[in-house]
Amino acid sequence: MLRDELIRYYYPGNGHNYSCAEAMMRAMNDYYGLSLPEEMFYAASSFSGGCWQNEMCGGLASIAAVLGIMYSRNGHGHDSVELKKLIIQLFSQVRGKYGCTNCGSLKPLIHVPERKCEPGLVFMCDIAEQLISENEIINKRKA
Question: Over the stretch 106-138, which tens digit does the pLDDT of each residue have?
Answer without folding.
Answer: 999 999 988 899 999 999 999 999 999 999 988
